[in-house]
């Protein structure tokens, strides 16, 4: 079941934080970095965020989280994380489908590391195409992908 999460609630923020930490540790290994900026985000950062969070709940357990922003019909997928023991069950795909159907948007955009091939493949399956590459100050080469009428 997918539902909107009240991330301003400390207990919910802690659950989101746990999913983020577990998933981002795996992603950091996948892309070959030790210092991975998403791992620095704390519970209070999540609680105070102005973004929206949706979670996939399995037997009352938070199995995955998608974080989005919406501004002027532009949908930003800020994060998509799945608890490692829920990998390869189609949950990330379900969350992407959910927000793409829920939100009325003209363009959706997501960013990921260039070497994160599983994420790139997943977004391509939803019609996203690469639109930009760059290397931010933390040194992890990134790419942006978008889908929608602005293409």
UniProtKB/TrEMBL annotation:
<feature type="domain" description="N-acetyltransferase">
    <location>
        <begin position="1"/>
        <end position="146"/>
    </location>
</feature>
<dbReference type="InterPro" id="IPR000182">
    <property type="entry name" value="GNAT_dom"/>
</dbReference>
<dbReference type="Pfam" id="PF00583">
    <property type="entry name" value="Acetyltransf_1"/>
</dbReference>
<dbReference type="InterPro" id="IPR016181">
    <property type="entry name" value="Acyl_CoA_acyltransferase"/>
</dbReference>
<protein>
    <submittedName>
        <fullName>GNAT family N-acetyltransferase</fullName>
    </submittedName>
</protein>
